[in-house]
Write a structure and sequence with these properties.
The chain has 684 residues and is mostly beta strands.
Length: 684
């Protein structure tokens, strides 16, 4: 009852704000008006100067896919458990929030569930790959307030991304220029404190942007303290009308305790408990990148870039200790990861006309040299974080070279053809000390073609259809130790329609299918040996609709249906044909009603429903779906000051975005209960 009363009060306040704000002042500079890709094409022809990092992808090329592009206005002024949560703003994506402090959580996209905590999605920050050699990608380095936009490309649809892009790619781009200062100060439940500053200045030929964050939380569960500090700087200098260069640097430090995954009995009785005081971690990371862009002609540009990063990462992990585990026995481990990477590339971009038709072309070459050292020690029951015996110690060197190209050509005035492809080449070495062994690998070499058509129908409607082929390498050391394995092949088909039938509404709908062949599975007669034999099919529909019934009012709805199944798969125990893949909910729905005037009272209500999902390949263990409601009331005093109160999990729903299975019982990472955050932002 208390939750409903709170909801009614907030709903009344939001409704009052909508009615009373009909004559509110105009929004401050930067207020966003949503348009379809077709309308953007008609109203704002792309300029060569709009070409950006990574490749450099031409933004209009995204219209040939079901990509979601989130801008700064959509990203900021929200409460995130981790920055990965901003991907919930894209239809069909779910987050496995492990809630283990600085340990990277995972997300599900296009039916692939090991995105960011595994090898299923390619993730970049300003063109620097975040994926490590096993696919793990930590997005906790990201400060949401400094992000200019996020490009979410679903499936292997883009020629700009190769390794790890089975489910697609996520590219975060930071603000590179401007003349503003933004300060955010936030305090909320569980003693959560977050201070962020973003400063952008333009001094003649020099653009410089600085960002910093200091974050602390005690966390909802016991043993959940997390501290992180993040600083970044970017300097862009125009040497002349044709040549400019950018230097970007970033440093990150994080330490945390984590609660571990609690069993069913504890989740039912006292979900704020932790497994013990053993779990936790620490990470240090530094990176830098240099870009130089030279305008060859009014229609073409050449870009060269180089980057490097280094990190040290330690994690202590120990699951729930059952009564059968005696003091002093090995259980859990300490994991140490050291990583040093350098990369370089060059790309050519053309934006002009070929045979009197609009033409956009990108050609590029990338190289990356990754070196990793990984070590593990046993932890023993009753001995805390003290190291036991070492049981793993190896070095990996992986060289990646990629050639890619994409042509966007206007065949007819309403019809555009996008064709592209990339050629990825891999080699490297594995040196194991425990157990002892040295392995070399030359190859594989993989070509991935892409093609799409975009048809502009009746000016404000756009049809698109696309085909893309991608791949997945054997995981981790299997790339070297099981060199007989070929890459698994991912093939996606998608098509859709988006449009703006009236000025106060727009929509998009996509149907897609993604097949995997030559997947990695255990042999039926020898479960210890892998082979290229498994096949899976993932398919579904994604829809979204936006309504703008009154000035400053927006109603957003999105829904995704995902059918992900094994079509030929042996999991080491039994054949799983037609079984559902694990950790993929069939239904994901979001609804958000917002009122954001330039001045005065505003607010937002957001509802999210995720249906249940299977935890095991036999489909005998299920995780409960959940529904949550978040709310925000804000007041903008003037163009400088804004105060917001966010209520998270308004109805105090008990739920978990992650469900595991260990010691013959379910394990959980509980979501936060009813909680509140007060945020002051100052812009000048």
């Amino acid at each position: 009852m208390r939750g409903w009363k709170t909801f009614n009060l907030l709903a009344m306040a939001l409704a009052f704000a909508m009615v009373s704000g009909a004559s509110a002042a105009e929004a401050p500079p930067g207020d966003k008006t949503t348009t379809t890709a077709a309308e953007e094409t008609i109203k704002k022809p792309l300029k060569l100067d709009d070409v950006v990092v990574r490749g450099d992808t031409l933004r209009e090329g995204l219209a040939a896919t079901s990509a979601t592009v989130l801008d700064n206005a959509e990203i900021v002024d929200r409460i995130y458990v981790t920055p990965l949560d901003m991907l919930k703003l894209s239809p069909g994506i779910t987050i496995n929030q492990y809630r283990q402090g600085g340990t990277a959580s995972a997300f599900q996209m296009r039916g692939f569930t090991s995105c960011s905590h595994g090898p299923d999605a390619a993730i970049f920050l300003d063109g620097i790959p975040l994926n490590e050699t096993d696919g793990y990608a930590d997005t906790n380095y990201i400060i949401p307030e400094e992000i200019e936009r996020v490009e979410v490309v679903k499936g292997p649809a883009s020629a700009l991304y190769g390794n790890y892009a089975s489910a697609g790619s996520v590219a975060f781009y930071t603000i590179k220029s401007g003349d503003f200062t933004r300060l955010k100060m936030q305090y909320g439940s569980f003693n959560t404190q977050d201070a962020v500053a973003v400063i952008a200045r333009k001094d003649g030929k020099l653009d410089h942007v600085y960002a910093g964050e200091v974050y602390h939380t005690d966390g909802y569960q016991d043993n959940s303290t997390w501290n992180k500090q993040n600083v970044a700087g970017r300097w862009t200098y125009a040497l002349n009308d044709r040549l400019d260069a950018t230097l970007s640097v970033r440093a990150f430090n994080s330490t945390w305790d984590s609660p571990g995954y609690i069993p069913q009995s504890v989740y039912d009785s006292n979900p704020s408990r932790s497994v013990s005081d053993v779990n936790g971690g620490e990470k240090k990371r530094g990176e830098g990148r240099v870009d130089a862009r030279y305008k060859l002609t009014d229609n073409s540009k050449l870009m060269v870039y180089a980057w490097a990063h280094q990190q040290d990462f330690t994690r202590w992990y120990q699951n729930w200790i059952s009564p059968s585990q005696r003091a002093g026995s090995n259980y859990g481990d300490e994991r140490f990861f050291q990583r040093e990477v350098v990369g370089a590339g060059v790309s050519y971009n053309y934006l002009g006309k070929l045979w009197e038709r609009d033409t956009r072309l990108v050609l590029g070459l990338d190289f990356m040299d990754e070196k990793e050292n990984r070590e593990r020690w046993n932890l023993t029951v009753g001995n805390g974080r003290n190291r036991g015996s070492k049981y793993q110690d190896f070095d990996i060197t992986l060289y990646t070279t990629a050639l890619y190209g994409e042509l966007n050509y206007q065949i007819l005035k309403p019809l555009r053809l996008v064709v592209g492809g990339r050629y990825d080449m891999f080699s490297g070495e594995l040196n194991e000390r425990i157990p002892s062994g040295d392995y070399d690998r030359s190859g594989p070499e993989i070509f991935s073609p892409k093609a799409a058509l975009v048809y502009t129908l009746l000016e404000y409607y756009e049809l698109f259809a696309g085909y893309g082929k991608g791949f997945a390498l054997p995981r981790d050391r299997d790339l070297w130790k099981r060199s007989y394995l070929d890459p698994a092949i991912r093939t996606q088909y998608e098509g859709g329609l988006r449009g703006r039938p009236v000025r106060w509404a727009d929509f998009g709908v996509t149907a897609w299918r993604l097949d995997t062949t030559d997947d990695f599975q255990a042999k039926a007669d020898d479960p210890t040996t892998l082979e290229n034999a498994g096949t899976t099919r993932r398919q579904g529909i994604e829809t979204e609709v936006n309504f703008y019934p009154w000035k400053h009012v927006r109603l957003h709805l999105d829904y995704a249906y995902i059918d992900a199944r094994y079509t030929d798969y042996f999991d080491g125990t039994a054949q799983r044909e037609d079984n559902h893949l694990t950790n993929v909910p069939e239904n994901v729905f979001n609804a958000e009603l917002s009122y954001e005037p330039g001045l005065g009272l505003g607010g937002r209500l957001r509802y999210r429903w995720v249906s249940d999902w299977n935890v095991d390949a036999a489909n005998t263990i299920k995780a409960d779906g959940f529904q949550t409601v978040d709310a925000q009331i804000s007041y903008r005093f003037d163009k400088r000051y804004r105060l917001a109160l966010d209520i998270i999990n308004l109805f105090d729903t008990k739920y978990s975005e992650y469900l595991g299975y260990a010691n013959d019982e379910k394990t959980y990472a509980p979501g936060d209960p009813l909680s509140a955050y007060l945020t002051l932002t100052i812009d000048w």
